[in-house]
Amino acid sequence: MALDLASIATSFGERLRHAGIAVTPERSSRFVASVAMVTPTTIEQLYWIAKVVFLTDRDQTPIFDRIFAWVFRGIMDLTDASVPHPVDEPNASGPTPTSERGPEGGRERPPSGPRGTSATPGEASDESRDDPSVLAAASIEERINERDFSMLTPQELALIQHLVEKLPVIPPPRTGRRTRRSSAGREWDVRATLRRAHRTGGDPVHRVMREKTLKPRRIVLIADVSGSMEPYARVYLHLMRGAVRALHAECFVFATHLTRMTTALDVAQADVAYRKAAEAATDWSGGTRIGRALHDFLDRFGRRGMARGAVVVIVSDGWEVDDPSVIGTAMERLSRLAHHVIWVNPRKAADGYSPLVGGMAAALPYVGTFVSGHSLAALEDVMAAIHAAGHRSVSRAVDAA
Which residues touch 294 (CB under 8 Å, ≥6 apart)? Predict the structure, then answer.
């Protein structure tokens, strides 16, 4: 019989709590929501989701691994309520450090230390209030949310892949050329009104009105995959694939030369898409020629229509090996074609950062929105900037003049 996901999470959380890991109902519900959002297809993916949600300390890993294997790797059946907790099994790998036996040697009683107390509000003991791991330690999920992409482990990067791909990239609307019938419209549909007047003896009693239609603006993403941007490029490749699949966005990467990634990323299987992307980008982790890549984009794609009226998102730290003035010239051309230019620079999040020199200084006068996008939380600013790009970028060089 198929089990409900909520009952599985509750039973799993109860066993973790009996083993000495502080699990709250809120964490169990967060685990259910994470599984529903990520939809893992393997036990390993489910393992990392559960580990991110439930654990708050590295020392809890051995206990968690044993409980997870006991529950999810086919060792126990959650439908059997008589199944004891794994910490009670004589074959368990020794007693847990956060539990103790009763005087009769019977069932374990809950530990009394700060790590064994319940984290449910209103049930914490005085010792738990003094424990810094209970008071101030952020969950692993929260640390991933705020941590710079360059500081994440390969396992953590794999965990956020599905989250980044499903980020809601909402393009701003634009006014279409066509109109549609609407009672709230301001344009008079003369032809339809005259046709309807035949029903009233030629008298146009009922006027038919029309209004402009709205369409989403084209999104163009151009990401720097040079050596200095390699930790961030892999994350933004996930974002590109999600935008291509959901919005039919256009995507490019560059290091020493420009490569179009739209066709490679528009594949249902993620591993196949990324393998094709790796084969296409032969200059991955190479040098950086931003100006040359932007000029190449404008000559081959931009001025032919791809950049006209589009929201162009450039992801780069602005480090240029060529003359920075080449970037300035390319950005000036791009600002005339694009509706709005967004520049994402992960270095912007560093303390004391100021784009005063190099390629970033040459590009900034033609940028409409400048954000960092260095972490999972900062990606929300990127999504908000794309959605809010309803107004055309105004060249800052004109304002300075």
Answer: 222, 314, 327, 330, 331, 334
Q: Are 309 and 217 in contact (CB under 8 A)?
A: yes
In angstroms, the CA 157 to CA 160 distance is 5
> Which one, of 320, 156, 157, 313, lies nearest residue 244 by Cα?
313
Residue with tokens 């984009």: 297
Q: CA–CA distance from 158 to each of 46, 230, 238, 280 (Å)?
A: 12, 15, 10, 21
Question: Cα dihedral sign for 256, 258, 263, 267?
Answer: positive
Give backbone dihedrals phi and psi of 91, rounded to 5 degrees, phi first: -90, 0
As a whole number of angstroms, the distance between CA 369 and CA 381 comes to 10
Per-residue tens of pLDDT for the chain, all 401 residues: 345 677 787 788 888 888 888 888 778 888 888 888 888 888 888 888 888 888 888 888 888 888 888 877 654 444 444 444 444 443 433 333 333 444 344 444 434 343 333 333 333 334 434 444 333 334 545 667 888 888 888 778 877 887 788 788 888 888 888 888 888 888 888 888 888 888 888 888 888 888 888 889 999 999 999 988 988 998 999 999 999 998 999 999 999 999 999 999 999 898 899 999 989 999 998 889 999 999 999 999 998 899 999 999 999 999 998 899 999 999 999 999 999 999 999 999 988 888 887 899 999 999 999 999 999 889 989 999 999 987 665 544 333 32
Secondary structure (3-state) at 257:
coil
- Sequence spans of domains, the chain: 5-100+113-146, 176-216, 219-400
- Provide the CATH topology of domain 219-400: Rossmann fold (3.40.50)
